[in-house]
Design a protein that fits this description.
512 residues; Rossmann fold; Helicase, Ruva Protein, domain 3; 3 domains; five-stranded parallel beta sheet; four-stranded mixed beta sheet
């Protein structure tokens, strides 16, 4: 007897329906075809033990299982439940009438319980698009999949519940999630707030500008100056996620298996902070079965690289292309997978090996040339993609002891949102450009014209401060963002003057 059940295979953040065909005939054999990997082949032992836990067993007959399309490699243990229900249906142990139009996924334990799977949301989206009416999966993934409207999602704890449900002996209620309510209920939940920060007003201002224009930023300062503390609070002033951005971010985290069992939707912008010992594959993504890396997990959020010069040079260099294209492509011999990677890069670093170069009170102990050698660990092309360089100095005691409350993140966030709205209107109809940081050189000349006074200020700054040519475009982009925060249609001289301050590492005298 031939029975078909349906599962799904993941490709990047998308999925493809896999048909599990089970044929039981006379004879004694168990064959699985359709390019299964070892984890799929080993499902026979897990299924056998799980069925014995509910008083059933794999029939001692000739069983042929085909995973179609047969030329597509199937990986992972999430096909256990799909294969098990196919075997039971072909053997007559469960009714077949409910299997049509039903997606079934789940990893089986030896005691029959179900373990969570990866990619429940993209699988549910594909199931809905392909006309499936229902989806059975582990209870831990049910809320995540239930975000998809028009698909009945049933969360189950063990294979016994699946058997009883398909035989009509158990009534299961579909899991319901109000997507908009879930989205708006936790839209402003942030652990850190700028109101906790004493002093550092110039750094707060720089981070506000970075958030308003989507600019990458590097914080340079001695140990204990507050670089990490300030960076962790940046997501709290970024504009809230749109529902579309939240769904896309959730898909990435779902595929990576990073979703909490009690969470159905990522509602706040991600903040990823990998350690400096990370490999290039872990950062950009990859592996035998391509998985999203840290830059994709930071999509629509912030990627924070603390102690930037301590990262391996090869790791930092893989950032160059994603920073420009905002997408990363992982290519393998048989497939090519694309992961979104639109993130803000925030980096923190000491100015020198000892950490006290340019410190107002502590003398630097580094030898001649060591400061520049330390900075040279980071390539010019990478620094070229960082718009704002800002020096962080230690907070004096009078600021630390000040009992007056600092400005809250919500207040700063409102100014950021207004500036982003101006930019969205400005770049309406221009594909791939949503904020000032994404402007091309051609668009920059059109959007950022300077009057004679502005031209003179910029020329004077480049001559006297020794700013490099690559700083020119960055200054224009940042000054355009400052003008947007002020609500000004034109870039004024004071906007340019402030933007010039944020190019510390481009000055000829830095590290000399």
């Amino acid at each position: 007897m031939l029975v078909k059940t349906y599962g799904s295979a993941l490709f990047g953040i998308h999925s493809m329906v896999v048909t599990v065909e089970v044929s039981i005939d006379e004879g004694v054999n168990f064959m699985m075809v359709g390019l299964p990997d070892n984890a799929v082949k080993e499902s026979q032992q897990r299924i056998d033990a799980a069925l014995r836990s509910v008083g059933l067993r794999i029939p001692g007959k000739k069983i042929v299982i085909n995973l179609a399309p047969a030329d597509l490699r199937k990986e992972g243990s999430s096909y256990d439940l799909t294969i098990a229900t196919g075997i039971l249906a072909a053997n007559g142990s469960i009714r077949m009438d409910k299997l049509d139009g039903m997606m079934i996924m789940g990893e089986l334990s030896l005691d029959g319980s179900l373990k969570p799977i990866r990619g429940a949301l993209p699988i549910a989206i594909e199931a809905k698009q392909r006309g499936f009416r229902s989806f059975i999966l582990p209870r831990q993934n049910a809320r995540e999949a239930a975000i998809v409207d028009g698909l009945s999602v049933y969360g189950v704890d063990n294979i016994g519940q699946v058997i009883d449900f398909l035989n009509g002996e158990l009534q299961l209620d579909p899991v319901f999630v109000n997507t908009k309510e879930e989205f708006f209920s936790r839209l402003n939940e942030y652990e850190y707030d700028f109101s906790d920060v004493k002093g550092q007003e110039n750094i707060k201002r720089a981070l506000e500008i970075a958030a308003a224009g989507g600019h990458n930023v590097v914080l340079i300062g001695p140990p204990g100056a507050g670089k990490t503390m300030l960076a962790k609070r940046l997501p709290s002033v970024l504009p809230p996620l749109t529902l579309e951005e939240a769904l896309e971010t959730t898909k990435i985290h779902s595929v990576a298996g990073k979703m909490s069992h009690h969470t159905s939707l990522v509602t706040v912008r991600p903040f990823r902070s990998p350690h400096h010992t990370i490999s290039d594959v872990a950062l950009v993504g990859g592996g035998g079965v391509p998985q999203p890396g840290e830059i994709s997990l930071a999509h629509n959020g912030v990627l924070f690289l603390d102690e930037l010069p301590e990262f391996k040079r090869t790791v930092l260099e893989v950032l160059r292309q994603p920073l420009e294209d905002r997408v990363v492509t992982i290519s393998r011999a048989r497939q090519s997978v694309e992961f979104p990677a639109s993130f803000m890069l925030v980096a923190a670093m000491n100015p020198c090996p000892c950490g006290y170069y340019n410190h107002p009170k502590v003398e630097c102990t580094c030898g001649p040339g060591n400061v520049q050698k330390y900075l040279n660990k980071i390539s010019g092309p990478l620094f070229d993609r960082i718009d704002i360089h800002v020096e962080v100095i230690p907070v004096p005691f009078r600021d630390l002891s000040d009992a007056r409350p600092s400005e809250k993140s919500e207040t700063i966030r409102q100014r950021v949102i207004k500036a982003r709205q101006i930019q969205e209107k400005r770049f309406e109809g221009i594909p791939g450009v949503h904020c000032n940081a994404q402007m091309s050189a051609k668009l920059l000349r059109k959007v950022c014209p300077l009057d004679d006074t502005g031209q003179a200020i910029l020329k004077n700054a480049m001559d006297k401060l020794g700013l490099s040519a690559r700083a020119f475009d960055r200054i224009l982009k940042v000054s355009r963002t400052i003008a947007d925060i002020d609500g000004q249609p034109q870039i004024r001289p004071d906007h340019l003057a402030e933007a010039i301050q944020y190019r510390s590492l481009d000055r000829d005298n830095w590290g000399k």
